[in-house]
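Sequence in, structure out. Go.
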Amino acid sequence: MRASLIQIRVDDDESPNSRRLRAASMVREQAGSADLVVLPELWTTGAFAYEAFSTEAEPLEGPTYEAMAKAASDAGVWLHAGTIPERTVSDSGSAAGDGPLYNTALVFSPDGELAAAYRKIHRFGFDKGEAVLMSAGEELVTVRLPETVLGVTTCYDLRFPELYRGLVDRGAETLLVSAGWPERRRAHWTLLAQARAVENQAYVLACGTAGTHAGVPQAGHSIVVDPWGEVIGEAGAGEEVLTVEFDAAGVAATRERFPALKDRRLGLEPPRR
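Output:
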């Protein structure tokens, strides 16, 4: 299986619509060279551009949805289109777009259909930024591909191993992380991606942004880690498309050869029927 992580540059001097068109073009360029394409978190606005969350928020089936669905279909790829600031409708339904904001990931099938939407569960910022501007998601999301089962996560989620255990319980074998990770904590990015791979005996595909938005330099260094924790691909700091070929069957082989997951004693879910 081949995956392309599009580490797009996000800077304040490019409009969200311009970047949307550019990202769609970059997805189309992966036709024939990738089965799965991954974009970063909040790449239309920038993950730290808090003021833009509300002004650039869009409904689920808004302009980013439309552009990415078409790009996935044109390229014939599974596409994790990163995340958008999603504006929902309030419970009263009195007006479109008057509900809470979510940091929402969109996953499209090769025919351009929405396969899944994941609302980020763990919001970053403590008492400011995303943590107060956006609402928390509640549902774990997996997507079944012919070759593997994807577990969908976003940025700050990477620091919460129990989320990934929950995805493994739902069959996840390849863990996707769409992020806007700051350069000042890049060491944590690499360490945590490898830890999530080792402890869950799964592939981790972690895609971040390049550039600087709202004064925060981005880490870049998108990374692909195998179930043994070995880095099999890593980008640099700038805009780059990282394409890696990996054996999805390696997850089952690893779990059979070193069956550590069978020895779990805590946090186990009842078997699914």
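Check: Residues 251 and 257 are 10 Å apart (CA to CA). The mean pLDDT is 95.
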